Amino acid sequence: MKKLWYYKNNKEIFDFCEDYKKFISDNKTERECVMSIRELAKKDGYKDLKDIIKSASKLKAGDKVYATNLDKCIFLFKIGRNPISDGMRILGAHIDSPRLDLKPNPLYENGASNIALLDTHYYGGIKKYQWTALPLAIHGIVCKKDGSTIKINIGENDQDPVFCITDLLPHLDRDTSKGPESKIVGENLNVIIGGIPLDGDVKEPVKASIIKIMKNYNIEEEDFISAEIEIVPAGKARDMGLDRSFILGYGQDDRICAYTSLKALLDSDETDNTIVGMFVDKEEVGSQGASGMQSLFFEDMVAEIANLLGESSPLAVRRALRNSYMLSSDVTAGYDPNYESAFDKNNDAYLGKGISFNKYTGSRGKSGANDASPEYIAKLRNLLDKGDINYQLTEMGKIDQGGGGTIAYITANYGMNVIDCGCPLLNMHAPWEVSSKADVYEAYRCYKAFLTLKSE
Ligand code: MN
Ligand code: MN
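# manganese (II) ion complex -> structure
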């Protein structure tokens, strides 16, 4: 197998990555991802499963349907020629990313400084200091008592204001610079929102002026309690490096796998087995909740589809799940030349060397791991080698250095074959993560080939 960069037409890789950069720049929350995925799927002829159930029509090979839950996760199904009980080919990625959420009562004014701030609660595993001293944007929705919803997206256009969490200047950090990072930043992930006081004799005049500005958006202070507002890095994903080999962008964990899986699904021809794209929420906090992978929503949707295909017995649904093959598409840690001691150079993933497979994740003695079977890996090797697809079999850093998990162990509960695979990243979980364009393209090619995987 030749190295990716040398046998591929770079233009093909670079063009593909232009659309990817746009996707992650335009979609920085799970809701925004669901909306975009749904739009792209609809354009490709996918129909809402709800409507098909309501109209009592049937499904057949070649039909395409989507199912969304709470606007925070979405599943795409393209019906294959074989009965669904023969199993599906599933690409599963998560669309939530580490970020800062606003607290229910976030807005306050610091009296001494006359600065108004928004208090946040972080989501997912972050290194808190990385979120200070950089431009931030506000994305989300506010749900009003009258049932209406207001969408918010401030900080992405050049004319928009941006926001910031401050860090202490080096001149004054003698007390704090030697402490653990959590102590330095601690609870102080507060976003500056304004500094002009309202005129007249007003208590908390800056806060009052911010509340007045919010009224222009039809938002009252008490509306924060029924809002879902996320603070994310402001700005677009960019090419990185003089040779433009890398992409620096927010939320690549795991929208890099979500986007490439989606593209593979949309570009695929009709297949023998039903093919599925899973785009789920809450992976970064353990996959709980109705929109997370642990929810029964996926299973329910498979049952609905089996029913519409005339395979309505509970056993057919169990067989459909058990006979499936899945790629749990998630990023892994790329070998970082600045932190070599955290890695095992013979067993870690390298950027630019193709898509990375992790037989197991977990931590310490493989605790929490889904351990993919060697039989399944052999089957994949055969498929990937035939397709001349570059891949690596890797672990995530040194054994006792840390660890991590994905959604693989959850779908493995059905008895299906599932393995983790995705692009290696540098700076994973930082506001700006680094990927290799070559890997983005190779992930797409891998996912596309996988959808044609035969049972025997
Ligand atoms: Mn992930
Ligand atoms: Mn993650």
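# post-check
The radius of gyration is 23 Å.
The longest strand covers residues 99-110.
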